Amino acid sequence: MTAHLTFLESGVVGLIQGVSEMFPVSSLGHNVLIPAIVGGSWARDLNVSSAESPYLAFIVGLHVATAIALLVYFWRDWVRIIGGFFSSVRDRSIETADQQLAWMIILATIPVGLVGLTFEHTFRVLFAKPILAGIFLLVNGLILIAGERYRTRASLAADAEVASAREPVAAALPVREHALAEPAVLGPGMTEPMLHRTADAAPVRGRHGGQAERTAELADARRADLRLASMGYPKAVLIGSAQILALLAGISRDGVTMVTGMARGLSREDAARFAFLLATPVILAAGVLKFPDLTGHLGQGIHGQILVGSILSGVGAYLSVRFLVRYFQTRTLTPFAIYCVLFGLGSIIYLQVK
């Protein structure tokens, strides 16, 4: 088989994949729409609905790179969460926040995993069409608008709580990292303010600004995980199940997960964090399951293009998640909603008249 995937195509699509996978704008939707809009060899080479297209192997490489970028950024969190899982199995009990969060992520991933394994091919062949992707991208924008417009009182109150918890910590000196590494047990008498006092009690002087900022982020992450661990398993499974909609090209996994989380009372910041944590195993599993495509006949002749696209995808994903973690501390989904509506509507019109 002769592959027709150029380095320019792989570089552009790889970078767009990494960025759009993290932003609530649907990477799959962009992977379908952009080649169709550009037309010519792009539409022929980058056809995700074609069963024998080398584009499938290319997309696998991009997903693996995106998942690796998420693991790199959240590696400290995943060390804690995975440690919580194994300690819960060892002790046959689920008590700490890390243990609870580990099982929440597992249970919340099961619905989309089962549906993805069963219907992935059907969704891709039937729905990964340019016009439909434009329609679903428009729908995604409307979902994001509705998610912000109809925020629940509980979610708005959670925003205020998170902001107020951050203020005294931001004003304090940097904290000792070992205080953040200790497992947090949500047992009798243990409250989130106690974690604040534990963190603030041991300042470390003389750190550089970047180190202090990262330490503050670690403190924010620990408090966020305490809040997420307290939401309960049914809510976590419901939020995770929203990822099923992202099997439709144009619907953003992170977007619908965030909207569902806010609808169930999470703050915007915590909803974003949970969305990123949930996305990691799903994206990684999708890449691993399709990995034989890379080594099989679909990947022949395009290993260099896959490498270039994957590097750009990983870098784009890492920088994007780093930006979005800070962005959602104070800002909304509205700009992404407007973008999806305009791009989706514009794509529909263009594809109809071209």
Tally the helices. 17
**Unreliable stretches:** 173-207
Rg of Cα set: 21 Å
Helix % is over 70%
Binned strand content: under 5%
Structural class: mainly alpha
- Helices and strands, in order, run as HHHHHHHHHHHHHHHHH
Say how many strands there are.
0
| Domain module tally | 1
Form type: globular
For the sheet with most strands, the description reads: none
Distance between the termini: 31 Å
Mean of all residue-level pLDDT scores:
85
Give an overview of the whole structure.
This protein has 354 residues and is mainly α. The protein has one domain (7-156, 231-353). It has 17 helices and no strands. α1 packs antiparallel against α2 (27-38) and α11 packs across α14. Residues 173-207 have low confidence and may be disordered.
Question: How is the secondary structure organized here?
Answer:
Layout: H1 7-22, H2 27-38, H3 41-45, H4 55-73, H5 75-91, H6 97-127, H7 130-149, H8 153-171, H9 177-181, H10 192-200, H11 209-229, H12 233-241, H13 253-263, H14 268-289, H15 292-295, H16 303-327, H17 334-353
Helix pairs in contact: 1-2, 1-4, 1-16, 2-7, 4-14, 4-16, 5-6, 6-11, 6-12, 6-14, 7-13, 7-17, 8-11, 10-11, 11-14, 12-13, 13-14
